[in-house]
Amino acid sequence: MQNLFGYSRVLAIGDVHGMYEKLIKLMDKIRFNPDEDLLIFLGDYIDRGPAPGRCLQYIFALQQQYSDVVVCLMGNHEVMMSSYFMQKRGNYNNLIVDYAGSWLDNGGLETLKQLDEMDADTKEELLQWVMNLPVKYQYQDYFFCHAGVDPDVPLAVQNEFDMLWRRQQWWEQYKGEETLVVGHTPVQKVMKLTGKERRTPKPLFLANHVIMCDTGAYMSGGKLSCVDVLAGKVWQA
User: Which domain of life does the protein's organism represent (predicted)?
Assistant: First the structure.
């Protein structure tokens, strides 16, 4: 629980993308303490990797057990999955536009297979949870979302599309005082754009108050990373 001085650590975990073994190794390394820590998952738990179903179940169970101190944000892959199932049910909400057709082409086939192997109640419980995940979270001067922001728009009125999907080098243009903590764009791609590629991908701490946490967990040579945004400490698996 939060003490008088706030949390001891505010931990942000980048895109998991079905990499269950890396997720378990990372959680062992960070030694999450629900009495002192705030833990925030930045979305994209599914697709790409070999075990999206197990990742969903693990993160869901953790959030249910420690709902006061574990925050799970929606990523664009959760949007695509939600769209797929909502279209099948003939039901939409304001967040879910028609991404159903693109989900299976972006890693969704294995996720769908693993969901269909679960019993009906477990599958439905996970789907309802995913469909209602929040898009953003703010703690003090730290603003968390999956993808990015429109640098010309105040954080309080950001468009959900930008927070879930934006990738066009917004991080170079941001000039706000709050620190933005995001995933979505692997740091490998950012470093390639700057001509400063690294052998081991690590989260980026940009001078203009941006922390990028996606280190390409499912990619060749990629890592799953956690950042304590208060101390700047990094753990990887």
Answer: Bacteria
